[in-house]
Design a protein that fits this description.
The protein has about 375 residues and is α/β, with parallel strands linked by helices. It has a single domain (about 30-365), classed as TIM Barrel (Alpha-Beta Barrel). The chain is built from 14 helices and nine strands. Strands 7-6-5-4-3-2-1-8-9 form a nine-stranded mixed beta sheet, sandwiched between helices. The chain starts with a helix and ends in a 5-residue tail after the last helix.
């Protein structure tokens, strides 16, 4: 990218940033939706102990088809979407996932894929062209395969480590990250997780405290869930702080200092940051329902009824957006929380280097 193009891009981002703040202040519909999160399926081949997928979620009919997903992605261009994040369930349960990724890239979208890694084999990697416009995020909790797989399911550890090595060897420009859910099962091994990330050659490792809100809330009535006593939050924070420092020493992209600070107070402290759900980002479930976040996933607005743009700008989403703006839940969903923190000028000034590192990981390919 030339210097001129970079300056223009930063200028446009600045205008969009201002528009989002004006929208929030005035209550009008934002002109843009910078981030689109699409849950392409709720099917999954694993059964993570703390996760509500797939058996604890209601079935709402047929999943969005390939053509429907492509139509949503086309419409996102009108909303100036820059990042599309594909998740699940396990996205690669779908036979068309490689095709959908390729289509999103033709539109100029930065593509993120959250995966458990077990379906990312040689043929999958060969089907995805190399480039800095793709980031894979894999779920892995423990450096020991037996312990990890008792929590996440048989084959999880081997699937992630294989996928990381295949991508790093065959697609060197693609960014690769690990999401590590932190709970009673791995508090004492987070440093070893950083060492494993280095050995795998990945670019990022983030630490996500086990929480009871959002998608995991459907599982907490189940006695099989992995426990995390809220009284241990200081241990969670201390363990993540140490692991974060270790990751930074290796040059890995990792959780922001502010997010780690929040991890040490949740859920006792009141929320002192603004959530930008419904403004900076929107979520679509496998059935086409559009909503700000997983605390407000009522089937009120569906893109199948008139398209993404109409749904985003319509009265149903406006009502959900208003609810999201007034929500005081101190949730710790890393994607939405970290994105929301980047919308605060105060938070940016507290740690401007984190914003730079975010851009390098998500937009510059395999760099540390």
């Amino acid at each position: 990218m030339s210097l001129f193009s970079s300056v223009v891009s930063v200028g446009i981002l600045g205008l969009e940033y201002v528009d989002l703040h004006v929208s929030r202040l005035t209550g009008r519909v934002p002109l843009t939706m910078p981030i689109l999160m699409i849950e392409v399926t709720r099917r999954c081949n694993l059964r993570c102990a703390y996760c509500g997928y797939p058996g604890h979620y209601p079935d709402m009919g047929p999943e969005l088809s390939t053509d429907e997903l492509k139509g949503i992605l086309r419409e996102s261009m009108e909303l100036h979407t820059r990042i599309v994040s594909f998740g699940g369930g396990e996205p690669f349960v779908r036979d068309d996932m490689v095709e959908i990724i390729a289509f999103a890239r033709t539109l100029g979208l930065q593509v993120h894929i959250d995966s458990n890694g077990t379906f990312v084999d040689e043929s999958t990697v060969e089907g995805i062209a190399d480039g800095s416009d793709v980031a894979f995020i894999f779920s892995l909790d423990h450096p020991d395969s037996d312990t990890n797989d008792r929590v996440r399911g048989p084959g999880s550890h081997a699937g992630v480590t294989r996928a990381c090595r295949l991508i790093r060897q065959g697609r060197p420009m693609i960014s690769v990250g690990i999401n590590c859910v932190v709970g009673a099962h791995n508090l004492d091994r987070l440093g070893d997780m950083v060492d494993l990330a280095v050995d795998l050659g990945v670019n990022s490792i983030k630490f996500l405290p086990l929480h009871q809100n959002q998608e995991h809330r459907f599982r907490y009535a189940d006695s099989g869930v992995i426990p995390l006593d809220p009284g241990n939050q200081s241990l969670v924070r201390d363990a993540i702080v140490a692991a974060r420092h270790r990751a930074r020493r290796y040059g890995l992209h990792t959780s922001s200092a502010r997010f780690v600070e929040l991890a040490g107070t949740y859920p006792m402290a009141p929320r002192d940051w603004k959530c930008w759900a419904g403004y900076m980002f929107g979520n679509i479930d496998p059935y086409g329902n559009l909503f700000p976040c997983y605390e407000m996933m009522e089937p009120m607005v569906n893109v199948r009824d008139g398209g993404l743009v109409s749904a985003w700008r319509g009265p149903g989403m406006a009502a959900l957006r208003s609810r999201a703006a007034s929500c005081d839940r101190a949730c710790l969903s890393a994607g939405s929380t970290e994105a929301s923190l980047r919308m605060s000028p105060v938070e940016i000034l507290r740690d401007p280097g984190q914003l730079v590192r975010d851009f390098r990981f998500f937009f510059s390919g395999n760099r540390r």
